[in-house]
Amino acid sequence: MVRALRSHRRSQRFESSNAHQIFFENLVKFDPDPPEAEKDLNKKGKLDLKQQINILVKLQALDSQIYELNAERKKIPEELNLLKQKYKEKEEGVKQTEQEVKNKQLEIKKMEGDLKSKEEVIKKHQRQLYQIKTNKEYTSLEAEIKNLKADVSSLEDKVIGCLDEVEQMSKTFLQHKENLNKEEQKLKQEEELANRRCQEIEQQIKDLNKKKEPFVSAIESLFLSQYERILVKKEGEAMSAVKNGACGECRFMLTPQVIEEIKMGKELIFCSSCSRILYMKQ
Ligand SMILES: [Zn+2]
Q1: Which residues touch 197 (CB under 8 Å, ≥6 apart)?
Q2: Count of CB atoms within 10 A of residue 112's CB?
């Protein structure tokens, strides 16, 4: 009985001394929802360096997501501007076709005016024919009428040709205009989608920043500032896991001594090539 009691107490002591370790293991396993013991994370200086590096790795995972989201958000207006530019070019094309149709119609109107006045001159000349006295004058006027009639005939051909052309151009214009209207709708939809995605991204970043809080609080301010400085400099990748004896990010070969130092976890070890914080993957 006494032995059983002692054994029970021993195990209680054991549990108590390991409580911090267990809490830490839970924290490291934290992925992605906060652990129950999150509030304990605010107690600074309780975790040793190895534990803090593990937390930095978790923090890095969140920061990587934030960097990716920021990059995506930055691209959205750029992509949208590209679409707007393409739309504008098409719009210009349609406007140009419209102008060409109008020009052609004006050209036809002018030719029709010419045609009318030439026909009037012909009629006038034909009336004059009856009043002419000499054969010479008659022949000359008749030749003029013949020339004018030839002009009229060629102008009529031209007008018919232009009318066919304008009909074809109008068809093309209407087709392009219809396509443009569809493009405009599409562009509006794209804009709406982009705005919605921007809002989503902002919310996701907000959530991620919230998730970061317990991790940030658990890390000593010196380590944190070093981590953050590298994070900015290396565009979202401050931590580098050792892979096959080299820095996992820049592939710089590490000496066995450096690897030993990383394993010991007495101080932060930086890659001497890319200056990221090195750690052993667990
Ligand atoms: Zn490196």
Answers
A1: 72, 76
A2: 14
State the total domains in the chain: 1
Domain ranges, residue 111:
80-218
Q: How far is the CA of 207 from the centre of ligand 1 (A)?
A: 30
pLDDT averaged over 10-residue windows placed end to end, the chain, 282 residues: 40 40 48 42 68 95 97 96 96 96 96 96 94 92 96 96 96 96 97 97 98 95 96 97 97 97 94 97 84
**Does residue 186 lie in a domain region?**
yes
Return the CATH number at 164. 1.10.287.1490
Distance between Cα 248 and ligand 1 center (Å): 7
- Inside any domain, residue 49: no
Residue 53: Cβ within 10 Å count = 22
Distance of CA 245 to the CA centre of its chain: 38
Ligand 1 mean position, distance from CA 242 (Å): 9
CA of 239 to the centre of ligand 1 (A): 9
pTM, two decimal places: 0.70
Q: How far does the centroid of ligand 1 lie from the alpha carbon of residue 277, in Å?
A: 8
